[in-house]
Amino acid sequence: MKNKLIAVPLMALATTVAAQAETLNVYNWSDYIAEDTIAKFTEATGIDVNYDVYDSNEVLEAKMLAGSSGYDVVVPTSDFLQRQIMAGVYQKLDFAKLPNLKNMDQDLMAGAAGYDPGNEHSVIYMWGTTGIGYNVGKVQELLGDDAPTDSWALLFDPQYSSKLAECGISVLDAPTELLPAAMNYLGLDPQSTEKADFEKGAELLMTIRPNIRYFHSSQYISDLANGDICVSVGWSGDVFQAQARADEADNGVEIAYVIPKEGALQWFDMMAIPVDAPNPDAAHKFINFVMDAQITADITNYVWYANGNAASMPLVDEEITSDPGIFPTEEAKKNLWSSKVYGQKTDRVITGLWTKIKTGK
Amino acid sequence: MTEAVVNSKPFQWTAKFLAKFGLSGRGLVIAVPTLWLLVFFLIPFIVVLKISFAEAMIARPPYSKLIEPTDSGFAINFSFLSYQYLVEDGLYLAAYGSSLRIAFFSTLFALLIGYPMAYFIARSSGQWRNILLMLVIMPFWTSFLLRVYAWIGILKGNGYINNLLLSLGIINEPLVMMQTDFAVYVGIVYTYLPFMILPLYANLVKLDGSLLEASSDLGAKPIMTFLTITLPLSLPGILAGCMLVFIPVVGEFVIPALLGGPDTNMIGRVLWDEFFRNRDWPTASAVAIIMLLVLVLPIMLLQKAQDGQNQDKSGI
């Protein structure tokens, strides 16, 4: 997260070095891998890894669409992946080089195939939900014991969010995740592509806009942990990282994550190989390596995101597998929705509404 | 020495060789900056201009081709859709307006802070002057990004300023300074101040002291002397400093992104949204082209101010 702006020039270096030793250029989300994964990969294969990070799908997408990014493995979220496949950005995987595919959870892979038919271009890296992270003590202090901490009302109902505004509310800077959540709260179809529905969702967000301190997709991790803000619409694992950081700092801040009872967005982050990857062979090795049961379990144990690897489940900490915020209950699963690929016109409507919401005008 | 070089055989040969291609020494000297402008300004500009007339689509690269070969030759597809968006949607106009407003006030603040500093440095004795100039330039040794991040640490809710004020009992609740326009102004004025001070200093240091003495001999108060002599004579420096601050601030992206709130709507942000969020490279290009046009006027003013300065010099 901290080095996202520095990562860009580093990449230019990475591409020039690639020609000499066997290297692999991986571009992944910030705070999204176990500390020893890369070292173990280099140890096992002798391939050096340049590991760069980003904190938004948009930044990754711009690089992919421009081409010649120099990356071998990237990890776009499912709906972005789908559009990028349409644009011809990714190469088909060579399944013969991926024996560890047998470890994957067939149900989840079938879910991901909705975005990438036949899972031809991608493999699930991690998956999660977009829900609410909150500071347990602060919320109770401001709202009392009957605070609706299991509901989107915490954010979308002004009578609650206006009180919480005092200690800070943040939301992801991701319109395609927030607007459907607002629509869902209003009882509309979160997968609707109707302009009128988006406008209703935007209207709801406008009513609570004065209560939102900022829109950002990574800063809330440290702010939640430090107690600088107390409610965040965020990605499940990121909120759990905030929780872990607060525990480490032992600063009296207790963070919890909830999949609101009204439902939440379920997304998959997918490993894929760009068509112009300099080293597709090493990229396959890396993807296969990550699909190893122990390696995936290590990553989940570190980043607290659910994985799509059935074989790794016995190796994942009990504390994580039993957490309904990470692995939702069957009941909660029914209310999860997946994201859609919108057309150019709809994208424009969404961005326009989002800018209006953010600027409060 | 120079004559020896010019008369030497290798030099003569080179000159003769180049002359065969119609190149003189003078032509070469001009060719370098011309080539530079051509490669690093004109060609990128033409590429951006070209993209602004395309249409966005899901492809790689994500826009339509302007000229497409067909069976019977070429088809040319110019689209003015991007420019149409800019005109129809009030959002863009608002963003241009807000960028110009922030740039205007930042420049004003930088001038109000920078002028006395430049004046003081110019009036200091030689040894002090060098040290003070050094202090102005020194921040450049640290990455610009790190310095902006440092401001986050100073301004945030549990940052240095709030902690100090809280511990002194001056305030009870932390002041909200981060994610506000205030933080953006602080960041911009801080970052661009040297660009204001240096041209002002260069101008003020040349100020003829005898004019000031004459003024006071004739009974003018210091304030009168400043208003009628120092200020008018430093006008080219003021203009140069203001343009050096104003022009880059209009397109500033990093400082408002890091320090500003979501309601800080500058054109750099809109450009980012168009490019990344809408994947609409043509509209992003159109936004950039219009921004360039908006800035041409101040750039021409800067040019004129510099010409004026040069004429002053040759006059003396």
TrEMBL record, chain A:
The keyword DNA-binding does not apply. Keywords: Periplasm, Signal, Transport. It holds the Pfam family SBP_bac_8. It is found in: Periplasm. PANTHER family: NORSPERMIDINE SENSOR, SPERMIDINE/PUTRESCINE-BINDING PERIPLASMIC PROTEIN. Belongs to the bacterial solute-binding protein PotD/PotF family. Required for the activity of the bacterial periplasmic transport system of putrescine. This is Putrescine-binding periplasmic protein. It comes from Maritalea porphyrae.
From TrEMBL, chain B:
Keywords: Cell membrane, Membrane, Transmembrane, Transmembrane helix, Transport. Belongs to the binding-protein-dependent transport system permease family. CysTW subfamily. This is Putrescine ABC transporter permease. It is a multi-pass membrane protein. It is found in: Cell membrane. It comes from the Bacteria. Pfam families: BPD_transp_1. SUPFAM superfamilies: MetI-like. The keyword Transmembrane helix applies. The chain crosses the membrane at residues 28-53, 102-122, 131-152, 182-202, 223-250, 281-302. It comes from Maritalea porphyrae.
